Amino acid sequence: MAQTVLTNAFISLNDVINNFLIAYTGPGKMIPDAKRTEVIFHARRCLQEFAYDTLKAQFSESFNLTNSAVAAADQSKNPFIQPADNVSVISIKRSTAAGGTAATVAMTEVATAALIVNNDQYFIDYVAKTVLFNPALANVANGFFISYVYLSNALTTDEGAAIPKLAEEALYACMIYSIMSNRDNPDPNTLQRLLISKIALLDLSKSRLVFTNFT
After folding, report:
1. Which of 107, 121, 127, 208 has the lowest CB atom count within 10 Å?
2. Residue 62 burial by CB count (10 A; 0-12/13-18/19+): exposed, middle or buried?
3. How far apart are alpha carbons 172 and 178 in whole angstroms?
4. Considering only CA atoms, which of 37, 60, 32, 26 is closest in space to residue 145?
5. Quick check: 20 and 175 in contact, CB under 8 A?
6. In this predicted model, what pLDDT tens digit does every residue of 107-140 receive, in sequence order?
7. DSSP alpha helices (H): ranges in 103-183?
8. Domain residue extents for the chain
9. CA distances from 1 to 33, 45, 61, 161, 187 (A)
10. Are strands 108-109 and 105-106 parallel, antiparallel or unpaired?
11. Of 178, 143, 164, the residue nearest 64 (C-alpha)
12. In angstroms, how far is the first alpha carbon of the chain from the final one?
């Protein structure tokens, strides 16, 4: 499973769920009797809705390039990885030496595969959906440890997803509306107010995220 890469700009889905339970559920709160499983379901459902055109969450993957199932092993080819179709790679790091277990050296993207001349460079082939590296990274004992950070809209099952804080309030509003609309005999006026709030906060988040660079 992908791991959360949290910065000041992101909050994990698990923290969103915990915050929601504290702020909005319990005696005297808007939702007095919600169970955690119910909140988790609606949090994932709202993320699925957001993912179509608003949110992309940040994840990271790490691997040893030599042992990677998709790494080319001979000197004539660039070793490569193939992220999923809905993934946008935003940064890559490698270990300082072969056999390392921590990726601390930032790598640089180059314009073509032919420009990869050292271990600190990589090329993203957007047509073939592959990331190419210098063969020297894979053709040594134990290989180099690689870690890449990416944005993805695959949000429906991973509670480790790192959600942009710019969309946090919109997510809470969506969760409130979803939970309340599934209750018996909901008040139509309350639902209408919650729906308006959800739409307004979602539109605000979308406009703010369009111009945000998460690199």
Report:
1. 127
2. middle
3. 10
4. 60
5. yes
6. 999 999 889 999 899 998 877 778 888 888 876 6
7. 168-181
8. 3-56+156-210, 57-152
9. 31, 19, 8, 10, 40
10. unpaired
11. 143
12. 22
